[in-house]
Structure formats: structure tokens, C-alpha cells
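Trying the structure run again after the queue cleared.
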Amino acid sequence: MGSSAESGVSGDFVTNADKFDREGQAAKDFLTPGEVARLLHVSPKTVNRWAHEGRLSCIVTLGGHRRFPRTEVEAAIQRMQGDGAGRS
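Done. C-alpha cells:
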């Protein structure tokens, strides 16, 4: 098994316990690449590429899946809306 640097995936690792809040409900603080893609109107591959390029921050689960902080995604949405606001 290689490290995250060897596999080309950057980010912090989380455990299954980190995915749940005190009430045992699934935490909605992190989004999957598919959820982010739907919000940003891009493909999941684009979301993962942006993460690899450092344009979106993410964490990597023990299973090797990326999860994106909801606040980071919301900020990206605001940036994208701001970029397109002046165009017609």
C-alpha cells in the first residue's frame, strides 16, 4: 500500500467516526464529488481534477474517496457567480 502522496491524492484522512455527529446522523458538512458536481454544474471528474489542482480543498477517506467541505463548495459557487455576473 502506498501513501497518499504516492497515489497522487492529497488531503487529510478521516475515520468513519468522523462522518457522524453526536446524534449519530450522517454529517452534511462534507459533500461527495457527485453532489459538488451537481451544485457547480460540472462533471464529477472536473470536481476531482480541481481538487487535484488545488482549486477545491478536500479530505480523503480511509477508502480513498474525496469529500469536500460544504463551506468550501459554497464559496466556490459564490466565486463562480461573481465571475459571470458582469457578462451578458
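Residues 77 and 83 are 10 Å apart (CA to CA). Worth checking whether this holds up in the mutant runs.
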